[in-house]
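INFO batch 0412 | record 1 of 1 | parsing
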Amino acid sequence: MKKVKLIGTLDYGKYRYPKNHPLKIPRVSLLLRFLDAMNLIDEKELIKSRPATKEELLLFHTEDYINTLMEAERCQCVPKGAREKYNIGGYENPVSYAMFTGSSLATGSTVQAIEEFLKGNVAFNPAGGMHHAFKSRANGFCYINDPAVGIEYLRKKGFKRILYIDLDAHHCDGVQEAFYDTDQVFVLSLHQSPEYAFPFEKGFLEEIGEGKGKGYNLNIPLPKGLNDNEFLFALEKSLEIVKEVFEPEVYLLQLGTDPLLEDYLSKFNLSNVAFLKAFNIVREVFGEGVYLGGGGYHPYALARAWTLIWCELSGREVPEKLNNKAKELLKSIDFEEFDDEVDRSYMLETLKDPWRGGEVRKEVKDTLEKAKASS
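INFO prediction complete | emitting tokens
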């Protein structure tokens, strides 16, 4: 019988980004405390996160880059030349204890999730999914690319058909670049169009891979205001495209919560029930995979969405209402709404959002038609 595990630790609370950074909020530590407050996790279901070994980090990253991250964190400074060479020390990728210690924990947890999968179990690493980091350069709040490390770990184990699916609102430019020229890894990403959103330079439909990797990269850039029906339409159609050309031995699914309406770093309008439906659609097509977190900058929205994922994985019924302990936990977070004129009090009452559906616009349909034609 498959065991279901959540990989995490309250220690993440010690390794925060600096104040005024979008990732200063509690995320994994909040999820663990929220699940406990709602009586939705047992101690036996939790695996404590471990740091990645240096050998694991070097499966993808360069040694000089990893050494620089370690040195910058140790001295809490920017080593000479590192800002320009490695893109660390600015607002986007600041010096903090998240840059190596926190990132190493997230990456070790992704390896742990893969190890559980290889044992025949199911695991969710909410700290994972840091998909922007490059081999020797920080990018988009990400220092260590745990999906890329995880994929290389699987390749080292002999896997030759690995699927990576990314549902984050932002394109997975670091993962795409890492595997753009191989036919052993298929990368599928549904995201905000780079015409208006980060990373701006990558994530276009025309990027389909090169060399042996041509045809093994599929980007689905989507418009502002994306509703639930549009997102699920795009996901189902893109999975059909993948299925026609690629039969994975294993897949990794990135579950960033920033496509949700409440998240202020995206322009999508999704509900968490559509987010959960998307999770289940992938599982219906490909079976169980390795599940990672990702972006997510509204702590209430993040905790509620990942709780739905956890309830689904662990076979629990989703409670209709938050109990008082969970409400007080969310209220205690040092977080201010980006737009204080919008009433988000419903997030303190229920776990599930109302469906945020609508018409599937022509531009969404056209994007999927073009994607199919280019596959």
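INFO post-check: Strands lie at 4-8, 46-48, 122-125, 162-166, 185-192, 217-222, 250-254, 290-292.
INFO record closed
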